[in-house]
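Hi C.,

You asked whether I'd gotten around to modeling the 284-residue construct. I have! Everything is below, sequence then structure, no commentary in between.
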Amino acid sequence: MTTEKSRVRDMTMTAAALAAGLFSAQANAADGFDLGALIAAAKKEKPINVYDSTGKIVEMAEAFSAKYGVKATGVKVSANSQLEMIIREGQAGNVQGDVALITDAPAALAQLLPQEFVESYLPADMVAKIPAEFQNPLAISTNANVWAYNTEAYDKCPVANIWELTESKWKGKVALVDPLTKGTYTDWFNQMEKHADDKVADAYKAHFGKDLKTEEKSASAAWIKALAQNAPLVTDGDDPVAEAVGAAGQKEPFFGLLSSAKFRDNEGKGYKLGICKELNPWVG
């Protein structure tokens, strides 16, 4: 996503377009595509800043700069902070971010795009290569958040049902990113209650052998409250969760919910992360 509408309107030949932020697919699909002309035009402009919630954006921007000769700086910014920065920069008329890769899709769809703080960009040469459902707005990547365990400490996933995480055995031993800083988790809570609350209730009965009786408005709300009351480790990002769960040499590692992207740390950092493939009612 690009954060300055006045600049975006002429962005078919700019560095930000070359970086493939987000723009209107329908508006640009027929414009034609000339990579050489795009690079030449981009080199005449100022360097660009790219916001993303992963630290990998720093290396990605460096690789981009090396390949195209167009200076780009990657800046790691959480989805919540991106949302605030984009809006404030736009309102102040002092836009610093040229491209934003934001994981909080509902916020982008409900706030950023309708109020024209950003526009979605799809390069014309990519229209035939990207499935239609991921084009408007453009989805750069899809990334699951999954329940994980330490394969060095356990022969198999030590949890079979999400309700187990509300019991004393796992008190203070469950790690996840603070939902107040990771909008996808609160979105998940809402969608779970709206579309699959019966599965949460069924999981309770499967584990405890009786129907759920609660003063909460839903089974999902009851589970979320019980999990919160079981003293989980709440972190500021997925990296600390990955370490708490997957670091080698632990006798009693944490069980955690984290981005599937962190499984690369098994190779990069020697972690022992494993996915709970058969967790009731879902793995993530």
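If it helps when you're writing up: The chain has a mean pLDDT of 88.

Thanks,
B.
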